[in-house]
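Lecture 7, part B: from sequences to assemblies.

Below are the input chains for today's worked example.
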Amino acid sequence: MPAKTKFELKLGPATREAFGRAVVELGRENKDIVVCDADLSKSTMTTYFAKEFPDRFISCGIAESNMTAIGAGLAYAGKIPFISSFSAFVVNKGFEQLRVCVAYPGLNVKVVGTHSGVSIGEDGPSQMSVEETSLACSLPGFVVIAPADEASCKALVRAAAAYDGPVFIRTGRPKAPVIYNGGQKFEIGEAVEVAAGTDVTIIANGLLVAQSILAAETLEGEGISARVLDMHTVKPLDRDAIGRAASETGAIVVAEEHLVDSGMGVRVAQAVAEIAPCPMEFVGIENTYAESGQPDELLDKYGLVARDVAAAARKVVTRKRR
Amino acid sequence: MSKSIEELQVIAKRIRREIVEMTGAAKSGHPGGSLSAVEVVVELFFNTMKIDPKNPSWPDRDRFILSKGHGAPVLYAAMAEAGYADTPADKLNTLRKLGSMYQGHPDVRFIPSLEASTGSLGEGVSLALGMGLAARMDGRPSRIYVMIGDGESQEGQIWEAAMAGAYHKVDNVVCIVDYNQIQLDGFVKDIMEVAPLADKWRAFGWHTIEIDGNDAAAVRKAFEEAAGIKGKPTCIVAHTIKGKGVSFMENNPKFHGVAPTPEEVKLALQELQ
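Predicted structure of the full complex, as structure tokens:
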């Protein structure tokens, strides 16, 4: 694993942009790739696909339930549909259809939510998806992925297309800090260790991966050696990596841009309880809806930055030593 | 599978007997809305649809989706009659029992020859559009038939799909409304009026045909008309009688979701000789 060189917070394309580009590449390779969108293609970035493959782009209008079941019909007929909208809409409004039309028969539908979490910013809570990872994980057979940056998102969109079954991919609106500089391989269900450490493990996904790396650097200066795992696949979790984290570092922090009481944290906690119980702390959105503001302001106000991750790590290390 | 109207009427009677027997054996289920749909389902499986029950995954086949999935008995009986390997006739009376392929609502995990799992109302027309769009992209001749209920037409998603089907000119999709006037809680007009249904489908841009859906000849003629319609999908508003064929079940809301007792089964089978 990489030695701790100074992590430079450099912004790259948003994960939604990475998705939009990746699905075009997939479309060039496979004529069975079809994209459905619900009047947000200029925001979900499926507009690239629509321009290059107009005959394989299905405009569904502002009707997510219908879009989801159309996706299921396409999958029944052998297509690989990517259905896309904001996470708040594609999961919540189409949830019944995700359950009965997609999950229940186990169809090969790829659901891509964009503008996830509070970092959508100014649009405010009605558009801010903070529950959808919980909902998606509740569906039997679903794979749930929350990539951290452009490179990992592109690779995981590709992995999702190659996987035969339902997948939800959570992407975001703002530019995402670059975590990977090429060469890294990404497999569904395999966490990536982005920083080595021995005293505590920070398990993060999405925008919280970069914040966790920054937190690890701060902690390093305080004599706390923090491992950081990019748990890009929330379901199925990488139980091996979690088991190693619990047994080797003895303390775990989970950090995510999602409601803290129903997101990845509770899933990781279940795995830790089953494999090797150890003290844990959780960084996420508390039991509330946020508000309008700039993404950075919101991430800061709602406790989703390096400062919060580091505080949780200090606390969990103290608990371990008690 | 081309058959005369007379031959279809013989099959229809057999299927009605199966519906009564299987729901009776299950002691639960939905006989009324299965009986109302018999003529449409029989015409599709034994005349109109290009299907090969010995080769159920033939990619150019026509497809049928029972969006009103609670009508599963009519679909199971028709598929058993058609001879699909995964719908054995001698197992129909295991309907709704643990381990049976004949689940309470159609489930592709148990019967792979089914075109879709259904049961939560309002979703089948959208599924049909997805299949119809896929067939069009692939240049396949497949036609997709989807049957919905009149009560089911209260679901908003039906109208999302109606809008999308016309907008995308999905002319290989035919929606049939089994308009039997009764839903679980009573008469449709007393629960949430859906009339005028034909006007609604026309307004949404579908070629719309209104027929007596228990008249086998009228049903056949409607499907023949639908086959010639280009540039828009077709909706057949099929006026039917809930519980059709069994005097004490006809137009009786009780038999939407209640199975006949053993005595009622005996009486019904006498009427269906």
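Note for the exam: The interface with chain B takes residues 34, 55-56, 58, 60-61, 63, 65-66, 68-79, 81, 96-97, 99-101, 104-106 of chain A (CB under 8 Å). Keep this in mind when comparing with the next example.
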